[in-house]
Amino acid sequence: MKPSAFLLAAVFLMNGGLLHAENCVGIKELQQSAPIGAISNMLDAILRKDTKHADCGSLNSVLGKMINRQKTGGRKLEEDKPLDAREAQQNLEAALRVLVAGGYRVHLPKPAQGSRPLCCGRTFLSAGLVDQARAELDRLVATYAPFAARGVPIIGLEPSCLLTLRDELLSLRNDDDAKAVSAQALLFEEFLAREAASGRLRLPLGAMPGKALVHGHCHQKSFGAFTPVPQVLRLIPELTIEIIDSSCCGMAGAFGYGAETYQASIAMAERSLLPAVRRAEMSTLVVADGTSCRHQIADGTGRSALHVAQVLALSLDRATPDTATAPATKDNIHG
pTM value? Predict the structure, then answer.
């Protein structure tokens, strides 16, 4: 029997809520005209006022009354609309399709306490708000620990979020529950690569003649977690994989949106990543798991990069009738 899996991305990415405020237009715009300390203080004040109902839209509205809307960072920002909500939902749906097609039972757990979506705490940590990050991780551990203790994999799509559970979590708390959650935390590709190596993975992938150009996220590289990305992509018949010899994309979360750091961000991207994408034929798929990486690629080249989950979902769509699987149903997705 295939193991169950908790898809952490459903919590981290699908909701696009306040605790992922770095993905909201208002935060990005604020960072163009205010130092990080002011951003931290403002976030803290807003969160203390309302941590249950606020989302990207309401946060943007609040910030709109508090900041100068003059664009100084050099990037074009959409007004009053979360940048990542649609893409995050698509990535989540693609990951669900792939896992279910592989025969896995996917759970989308809800917080053990309260109704506010769970968060890895990365947003708070990036702003120096350690106490708030610890509080978010406490909520997450309380929800996932009972399942981690049973050996259920906890799967994430966004490297910076998921790998928080393998790094900062254990710096903030060192108890058995935290260790169990950390030990079960796997990136989407890590899980699939592990299952493939054990012979348990059975995905009906259709041929995709062509080429995929792949950029690795900094967290994936620093944790030795990038190798599973090309391994999983090579499961797709007739797809040639080329890895871009790049370092950081330069976006680094909110770094690329600051007026004082924008030029440095672009210079980093122009070292190898953006030129490689520009040289690629339009038929070539550009693949990047990191949300910030995909933003940088889009801003610098006009090309849209895909998460690995979406590439695998495209391959599922090309499966021949005799190997196609049934769509996801309530029997194999729980939450």
Answer: 0.74
